Amino acid sequence: MPGSALKAGARKLIFKNSPRLLIISIMYVVFITVVSEFSFRLPFGNIVQDMTNQLAVGELPNIDVIFTGYRPVGLILALLLSFLRPLLNFGFMSFCLKTSRSQNTDVKDLFNGFLFFTKVISIFFITSVLIFLWSLLLVIPGIVASYRYRQAYYILLDDPGKGALQCIMESGLMMHGKKLDLLILDISFLGWYLLDVIVGLLIPLPFAIPIISIWLSPYIGLTRFAFYENQVSNVAV
Questions:
Q1: Which residue did the predictor score with more confidence, 139 or 115?
Q2: Which end of the chain has fewer surrounding CB within 10 Å, N or C?
């Protein structure tokens, strides 16, 4: 199914389920924005970013400096904040799944990631490590790896009984020969991302709440889930 058809289906779902869908989208965007702002603005929030930057240039993080430069409470809070984003993203994926399948949705869906805390964090950690290791070779292998594991969370949502590694391996099989299709689909949203950034810069707010994301988050979320459903259908056939 072409990306344009997937996106058209997502738009229909948004209009069909509004305003409830957009209200829940607002809550999701606010949660993600607050987590991001705290991670960026508070001193202890720079720990993970500092470590990531060092790894990106091929340097091993200096653990001694990290532990002497930050208090234990700060380290714990930084780790908690770094875990919140994948948990909230998983919750929004759950919301998109239920919306696409005409199931009852609720604000509580945004917190479904906490019901599968261990598996969600395991997928996040394992895929992050794998993507980083592939990135050590070149940028392109890292990008390819990131698309290889993109369906792992959806697979877990479809069958919560599966383990993290099984979801990751099945995602790799599902995305065989399909990674470029998903990349092209992601690129098709580039104009929306740019508009979101521009609007965010023009509107002076204490927190740079991305207004366009209120529409864009469900638009992308529903489109990506439609892509997943399409791959499941192809595998079944």
A1: 115
A2: C
With 80 as the cut, is the pLDDT of residue 198 above it? Answer: yes
Classify the phi-psi angles of 177: left when phi > 0, otherwise alpha if psi is within -120 to 50, otherwise beta.
Answer: left
Q: Which residue has the tokens 């877990």?
A: 156
Cβ neighbours for 114, distance < 8 A, ≥ 6 positions apart:
87, 91
DSSP letter for 18, please.
T
Query: Among residues 164, 74, 73, which one has the least CA distance to residue 125?
Result: 164
Distance CA 13, CA 222 (A): 8
At 237 the pLDDT is 47
Per-residue confidence (pLDDT) for residue 195, from 0 to 100: 87
Q: Looking at the predicted structure, is the pLDDT value of residue 2 above 50? A: yes
Going by pLDDT thresholds of 50, 70 and 90, the confidence category of residue 179 is very high
Quickly list DSSP for 85-116.
HHHHHHHHHHHHHHHHTT----GGGGGGGGGG
For the full predicted model, state whether its pTM sits above 0.85: no
CA nearest neighbour of 45 among 12, 68, 20, 74: 74
User: Are 15 and 58 a contacting pair, CB within 8 Å?
Assistant: no
- Asked whether the beta carbons of 44 and 70 are under 8 A apart, the reply is yes
Q: What is the pLDDT of residues 79-110, one digit of tens each?
A: 777 788 899 999 999 999 999 999 999 899 99
As a whole number of angstroms, the distance between CA 142 and CA 204 comes to 36
- Read off the DSSP letter of residue 149: T
- The owner of tokens 């714990």 is 76
Tell me the angle at which helices 117-135 and 139-148 cross, rounded to the nearest 10 degrees. Answer: 150
